[in-house]
Structure formats: structure tokens, C-alpha cells
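Q: Got a minute? One more chain.
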Amino acid sequence: MGMPCEVNSILKLKLDELDLSSLKSDSFRHATKQGYRILPIDVPIPLVDQNWLAHADVIISQLVWENQITRLTYKVHRRYPEPFSVKG
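A: Always. Here it is, folded:
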């Protein structure tokens, strides 16, 4: 028996989960993803919306797996002056 999990190097959230108006450097935020996810901890990774537009670099400080859900805490490391596409 195995444990299904997904490995991600980008944190992708829906626009309503991002709350861009309060996306400021050094602010801590929380997010929830369906399924079990493995993401890098303590290194900057891009934060993108569902349209693959990058808005910031974030540093994940905590991952919690429970009941087929990944809960994470992250800090905004750097907000980009303008969003840009990470998918062509």
C-alpha cells in the first residue's frame, strides 16, 4: 500500500485565496490544498494564481498532512512589481 502524493515546486492558489490587496512582503499566510503535497520548505518558490500568473516568491515554513489535505504556512518573501506568466 502506498501513499499518493504530489511534488510541487510552485505554490498555485486561486485568486480568491490569494487576496492580492493584502499580499505584502514578510507577511505570514495560510493555505490549504487538496491531497497530500510535498513542497520545498525554507527556500523561495513562486506563488502563482490559477492562470499561471506569478505574483510573489514565498517561503513555506510548515506543511501539515491530515485527512487527504495539505495545510501550509508561508511567508511572502518578495512581491513582484507586476505579475508575469510562468507558463507559455
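A: The chain has a mean pLDDT of 93.
Q: Perfect, thanks.
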